Predict the 3D structure of the following.
Amino acid sequence: MKQTKFIFVTGGVLSSLGKGLSSASMGALLESRGLTVANLKMDPYINVDPGTMSPYQHGEVYVTDDGAETDLDLGHYERFTNQTCHKASNFTTGKVYEAVITKERRGEYLGRTVQVIPHITNEIKNRILRVADEKIDVVIVEVGGTVGDIESLPFLEAIRQLKYDLGADNCLFAHVTLVPFIKTADELKTKPTQHSVKELRSIGIQPDLLLARSDRALPNEIKQKIALFCNVPAGSVVSAPDVDCIYRLPLVFHDEGLDDLLSKKLNIWARHPDLSVWADIVDRFKNTEREATIGIVGKYVHLIESYKSLNEALVHGGMTHRARVNLKYISSDELEEGKLEAIEGCDAILVPGGFGERGSEGKISAVRYARENKIPYLGICLGMQMAVVEFARNVLNLEKANSREFDSETPHPVIDLMEAQKEITEKGGTMRLGKYPCIIKPGSLAHRIYDAEEIEERHRHRYEVNSDYVEQMAAAGLRAMGMSPNGALCETVELDDHPWFFGCQFHPEYKSRPTRPHPVFVAFVRAALEHRRGKDEVLEQNDSEGEAELAGAILQAPPGGVSPES
Ligand code: GLN
């Protein structure tokens, strides 16, 4: 049987050094050499999962096909590799303790004293080993937090032990650290790295290689100095400078010899890497031929970490068309009271997912603006729900229509909790989480976007479009064109007589990869570009007929597939 190899990635000095991106890039490099990888993230906090954590605290909650609410690093893993993460790809201290305490209550420890070592560390080790099935050549395990934190000690102890359990040839410790440039001294400083490695060695872990983050490439003498003080060969200090595009990282690491180092140290035979796909992605990102500005109206706009996958999906959509996508974050609070200046110049408007009432009226105003002014609109989850509420209020004249989430007394709960949802979600959960199928009606915008009649997308929501209103809405022009297979739940809506207006109850952004840009974002960016082109032409011609002609051209535009020329 094949022995799976393990790379353990720890972080030193401070957080936000890009450990997740480094782990994801290692996955990309190993895949480019023909290996099969799986990534795993261990988080030291005590929450059982990040599902209930505020986006301000933790950034985006990433959702897997199998319905796990996870750390956003899993999004990086999926975007950089071909793997599909799952429930076991992320666990926290809380989850580990929950499992151990449950076993203790069941008497599984036969009356022994239950301790951090060995019970907690064994539970951690088992969860790491569980990810390594026969198909996987290398598991890349990222330890959350920073070395020196009290919280991450059991994880570090577990990986220290694993090297003995599995053999030195099968395990590699990579430490991501910081080499700051101090302006006043005009020097790169190695001391923080020295201290961080000392800390790691004091708990029994000698790193095999160091990924040195800095704002510039490390000169050789600095690498040698780090090597000397940290007890690693100079060739094992890899420079990880800041990059203009995250998808350049696999290329930068390859130039530093990282994939060779990994294969040699883990003693795996692997073919010569083919990185042409990453070179193409970076080229599309850098060498753009057109641009569009997309207004994103949300509540968490001050912390764009909360919209990580969304940002990336829009970038992927842009790359497809060789377009630069300027993302303009607009706080929904500011749109409240009808102050719409912020969205007026945008070529398209997007309202992303969200929870809670704050800002919802601002989002509704944004939808109204997009609908009435025929600006391309994409509503994701809450963004689709707000589009339905807006339509009910302003087109169907259902006064005080709302989502039950925000107004339990509304006379027109056009968004509500649905019995049909309860029937299809796993028992216990109140949220629809993970992958669900959706059937698309031929001839619809949804069908043009996907070019398919059955799709699967990831969900994370409690409320649904109220089926009592679906017919009435359709008669007035807002149509449900994607439905759950039993026809009970509305998955997508679209508007008649509008160049591009699409709402989806699911989150397409979770499935977009630079290597496979998601059709919804490809089509949405394309609609934004067409809108922009229309505006530019109108400006040039300075006559109103031009606009009418162009509106016709947009309506007849071919399906929103990949079309870099448009
Ligand atoms: N709050 C809404 C719901 O629970 C939307 C959730 C979301 O946008 N992810 O249905």
Notes: The chain has a mean pLDDT of 90. The chain has two domains: 5-280, 288-530. The longest strand covers residues 290-298. The radius of gyration is 25 Å.
